[in-house]
Structure of histidine kinase:
Amino acid sequence: MKSAPESTPIDHAESIVNALGDGAYVLDADRNRVFVNDRLREVTEFDEAVLHDRHPERLVEEGYWSAETGDRYRAAVARVLSGEADDERVQLTTTLGDGSEVTTETRLTPIERGGEVVGAVGVIRDVTERVERERELERLNERLERLAGFLSHDLRNPLSVARGYVELARETGGTERLGGGGGGGGGGEALDRIESMIGEALVMARDPDAIETEAAAVDLDDLAADCLDSGDFGDRPADAEVVVEDPGPVAGDPTLLRRAVGNLIGNAFDHAGDAPTVRIGVDDRGLYVADDGPGLPDDDREALTEFGVSHGGGTGIGLAIVERVAAAHGWTLEVDESATGGFRATLVGAEPTK
């Protein structure tokens, strides 16, 4: 009677892998996947030829892994198979058989026989949600750091102005320079500017999907007049002209559109020369604000809407705010050349009300 063949460490690993609830597999010393469990088949939907082949070469060849992912995996498994490491964890992004992507963490442990490494076990855990939470936290921390820098730096000037007028009132007993706003100077205008900057900071602090928008019909004539009467443009050129080519109304959130259009008008006043003409309207692309200034070099356009990027001494959040307002409405911001060779910003997707 023949005796049953002696089981090998690979056989023993296969029985363990088969019982695992996570996707798992067994590699031989040449990085061939000699066994995969049903969970891995179910999740990946890869065919058997891909599952039982040299790993990671076949996955890279089939497009399920990028070349960079394959290189990182290959380096990790090499450390295990060489005996350099008893445990390796590597985070990988995989395109599944249905075309979706997942982020996984694979734990690789050696299979030994007589002190020699003869293979490895890979256990895969889906960490997509965890990674997305970590990325969102990183994005939030980045936004908060930028906002902290912006508020601590850019609020100092209007705060100093307001404080100076308060001190002057205390010393002289006169209060005429404390009120105002509306472009009249004094402490009131400084406080108005502070309030505006805080409002911008709050917009930047929120994810666009979390910004609540009100659906309303916004008349562009009224919107432009409100912007000009606000006192936001302390350095408004004396000969500047704002022309509303199409008064609307436009469907959108009045407060957010006021902030976006106001920033675009202010941008034109800051950069379009001593006597700019700013044109506002709606065309088949969306709501636009265009000027007749010198325009913007092509190599600056991509960076223009980044938080903190300023071309001319501003706070560096003006167009970043506009982009955030567009995103909150489901629109996009495009910057290009105006008909007169100046700068044009378009909130693509904004439409006139019916």
Remarks:
- Confidence is low (pLDDT under 50) at residues 307-316.
- Residues 128-154 form the longest helix (27 residues).
- The chain has three domains: 9-126, 128-205, 210-354.
- Residues 9-126 form a domain with the Beta-Lactamase fold (CATH 3.30.450.20).
